[in-house]
Design brief:
heterodimer, A: 361 residues, alpha+beta, elongated, B: 148 residues, 5-stranded antiparallel β-sheet
Chain lengths: 361, 148
């Protein structure tokens, strides 16, 4: 029986060892899961609204495309989160911590089983002049003659939903700061399956041709004059004093709306349905106006424009003065980070100005 | 390399201006279920709702192809009344509203971030109100985002 004592000790050691291993494994698994949950939570908080809960896209481009994840680095994803795409809806996230950006990046990476692809940090050497000719022949039809991207901004109302992605703006400062030469080269070489982006290597282009194209795309960085600049106007509110009475100004606004080719959609005391209309004599009136064509055009540029459509004019009497007010449409382009709204916002600004001028002069 | 880093730095400074001016969430609730749930969440925080607008119905009726879209306005009666009387410059943005957009069996909710209003109307007595609106709006939208 003398052999039993060391055997018992050995057995206990083995049990303790296995138990310890299990604890370590459990701890690592729990930690990994916590990391995943943190990434998923951050993604849901900051990204899912546009890119979809599972990265299938919507307002934003789909992220759960194998070809996309196999042709970009984590650095590309992280910089895109940090810098956004000025004027192309994707906002920057300057207030996220580096750790949060990393967790979101890892979560986006988890949409596909493969590991992050490796990229050399070597710049691509090519001839931008030759690249410019190739760009016109192979890229400009979708990405625009100057790399400005496809019309629309990836917002679902502005494109048929069977198209998964709009051609990105290659001259966008956010894109150029996010994509290394090698990332651009791989995208051009391999294309993106399930999108209109075809592999240029399969279209007869050789590596040196693709290098020329990369050099040309990189040269967009020097075209600073063409950069999208998002600026808020100095005044967020259009306001004009009326020389007429409160009641007369309301009538003038309605007449001016009609004279400018629009209809009054609804009119009410401000806050109707929330504020009791019987509480004293309130002099804050709201006139909603527009045409279906105008509303449809606005929503087509960006469905979020519904926050400001139909047009809204308030007429108030305050401290003995009657004023007409509206939110300044010139802030919408920056507010929605959507350069496609620029012309529409200018047009809407002109309509407000014309109505205000007619009603108060 | 230095040029590249410089460009990134400049871009970060210039783009930080319009960060988070909108609050947006995606809900897995279908479009028809979102509005009543949204109104419940708004009411739970002491706000009243009014003026649900179905712009899409008018558009579709007139032959414009549009996805489902509506907006809900909300507010606290005394607050909306006082703000509109004391700060008429705010009236184009009152009452606050939340737009609901149907998107392939899910719903997208978007609202102007009250902190944006705090930036464009930097009046000291409004700061606390906009900050509370921001907190409440975040709670409302997060509850809708997590609703199943």
């Amino acid at each position: 029986m003398r052999w039993m004592k060391p055997a018992l000790v050995l057995f206990c050691v083995v049990v303790l060892f296995l138990s310890a291993c299990a604890q370590v494994e459990k701890s690592e698994t729990t930690s990994d899961r916590d990391e995943d949950v943190a990434g998923a939570k951050l993604y849901a908080q900051h990204c899912a609204a546009c890119h979809g809960n599972y990265g299938r896209g919507g307002v934003g481009v789909p992220l759960a495309l194998e070809d996309f994840l196999e042709s970009v680095s984590n650095q590309y994803i992280a910089r895109t989160i940090r810098l956004g795409r000025p004027g192309r809806v994707m906002p920057p996230f300057p207030r996220l911590t580096d750790q949060e950006v990393q967790k979101i990046t890892e979560y986006v990476r988890s949409f596909h089983w493969a590991d992050e692809p490796l990229f050399s940090s070597e710049p691509v050497e090519g001839d931008p002049e030759l690249g410019a000719k190739l760009f016109i022949a192979f890229c400009a039809r979708c990405h625009g003659a100057n790399g400005e991207g496809g019309a629309g901004t990836g917002v679902s109302f502005s494109r048929p939903t069977f198209i998964p992605i709009l051609a990105p703006a290659l001259n966008n400062a956010g894109y150029l700061a996010s994509a290394s030469d090698q990332v651009i080269k791989r995208s051009l070489t391999l294309g993106r399956e399930r999108t209109p982006m075809r592999a240029l290597s399969a279209m007869g282009l050789r590596e040196r041709n693709i290098n020329d194209l990369v050099s040309y795309i990189r040269s967009f960085e020097s075209l600073s004059a063409d950069r999208v600049v998002m600026k808020r106007p100095a005044n967020a509110v259009l306001v004009r004093q009326s020389p007429y009475s409160y009641e007369q100004t309301i009538e003038n606004i309605k007449r001016a709306v009609a004279n400018n080719g629009h209809s009054v959609v609804r009119e009410e005391l401000l806050g109707e349905g929330i504020v009791d209309p019987g509480e004293g004599e309130r002099k804050q009136y709201v006139i909603y106006f527009g045409s279906l064509q105008m509303i449809s055009d606005g929503l087509a540029h960006d469905p979020r424009m519904g926050l400001f459509l139909p047009g809204k004019i308030t007429i108030v009497e305050h401290a003995g003065e009657v004023k007409v007010l509206a939110s300044n449409p010139e802030q919408y382009t920056a507010l929605f980070n959507n350069i496609a709204l620029s012309d529409f916002a200018t047009m809407l600004h002109g309509i407000y100005q014309a109505i205000f001028a007619e009603a108060t002069s | 390399m230095t040029r590249w880093l410089g460009a990134i730095l400049l871009l970060m400074i210039s783009t930080s201006l319009w960060a988070s001016d909108l609050l947006m969430v995606r809900s897995q609730l279908v479009f028809a279920d979102v509005q009543p749930r949204l109104e419940e969440e708004i009411n739970a925080l002491g706000y009243f709702t009014a003026n649900t607008r179905r712009v899409d119905i008018d558009l579709v009726g007139a032959g414009f192809a549009r996805d489902a879209y509506r907006s809900v306005t909300y507010g606290k009666p005394d607050e909306i009344k006082a703000l509109s009387e004391q700060h008429p410059e705010l009236t184009p943005f009152l009452p606050p509203q939340i737009a609901i957009i149907g998107e392939r069996g899910e719903s997208l909710l978007v609202a102007l971030n009250p902190r944006y209003l705090a930036e464009i109307f930097p009046h000291p007595e409004l700061a606390d109100i906009f900050e509370r609106w921001h907190r409440d709006l975040q709670t409302i939208l997060e509850n809708i985002r997590d609703a199943r």
